[in-house]
Amino acid sequence: MQNPLTSIRWRRLSGEGVARAVESAMEAPGAADLKAEGRAWVRRLPAPVGLSSTGFITLKCRPLTGLFARLRSAAGRTRFDRHWSGAAWLREVGVPTPPPLALGTAHDGAGAVELLALEHWPGTTALAALAEGRGGPRGLRDLGDAMGALAARMTAAGRFNRDHKPSNLLVLDTPTPVVAVLDCVGLRPAAARDVWRGADRMLASMLIEPLGCGLSVPPALRLATLRGYLREVWRGDSPTADDELHGVSRLEWMRQSRAQLWARVERLIREHGDMTPSVNPLG
Asked: In the β-sheet with 100-107, what is the strand arrangement from edge to edge?
């Protein structure tokens, strides 16, 4: 860490003894910097036995600049508070995300900061996997299918993620793609009157970021993402694959829905404007 942290006060903990275990991890050797920008940083720390299922935790730090930020922290309404609540909801509905362990404040020598400790899950971001072309064409299709299914499980439970870009999704180190949500801050209730419940915005975000980073998005990946989403929706709404849904066969429903959903996704991409990110996550 750039400056030693003092005056640590935890206001949310996942269980008894977690505060002591997290602080022990903060003092142990073997930390690795994952990201740093000014006083904000993310580190991976070796975890004491029993704190994390993977043996490591992720510790995030962000400055609380100004009176308003400190008041929001005191009221429990910061970005890290939204992440904690969003992660709890995701885990409740069966969407994988690293569980938060502790949330609190400290002082880094230059002012107040906020801390969030989570389990560290090994893997790579979906954006990096797309950039690497991991697994070749078949691997990318499987990844697109998994990302689409993830979006469907979230919207079926009543929320969408307005920041559902691939750099905020983690591809776990598993034989077949399993995608987890890294950033839970952008979860919002889905509008009941919207037939897609925000899925169009999520699918558009999955494509806008790679395009903005200069990556090609082959039609096969686009189709796999749509197919993964629609297959999951069908499974959730129809008792068996042979049943009719909304008065049409599965094949016809898939065809109609794919055309309608892609038209909305394509419009969102077209209306987005400059897709270049302010900071390229790929470096």
From this structure: 6-13, 100-107, 112-119, 56-63, 40-46, 32-37
CATH 3.80.10 fits 123-271, yes or no: no
Q: How far is CA 90 from CA 154, 161, 199, in A?
A: 8, 11, 16
User: The tokens 């975000």 sit on which residue?
Assistant: 205
Helix axes 199-212, 219-237, angle to 10 degrees: 160
Q: Where in the chain is the domain with CATH 1.10.510?
A: 123-271
Q: Residues for the chain: how many in total?
A: 283
pTM above 0.85, yes or no: yes
**pLDDT tens profile 90-147:** 999 999 999 999 999 999 999 999 999 999 999 999 999 999 988 888 999 999 999 9
Of 249, 159, 148, nearest in space to 207 by CA: 148
- Give the rounded distance of the alpha carbon of 172 from its chain centre: 12
On whether the CB atoms of residues 156 and 116 are closer than 8 A, the answer is no
Instruction: Quickly name the fold that domain 6-119 has.
Output: Phosphorylase Kinase; domain 1 (3.30.200)
> Residue holding tokens 């950033």?
183
Instruction: Name the token pair of 189.
Output: 């209730």
Measuring CA to CA, which residue among 181, 5, 222, 203 is closest to residue 87? 181
pLDDT in tens, 150-168: 999 999 999 999 999 999 9
Q: Confirm if 243 and 252 have CB atoms less than 8 A apart.
A: no
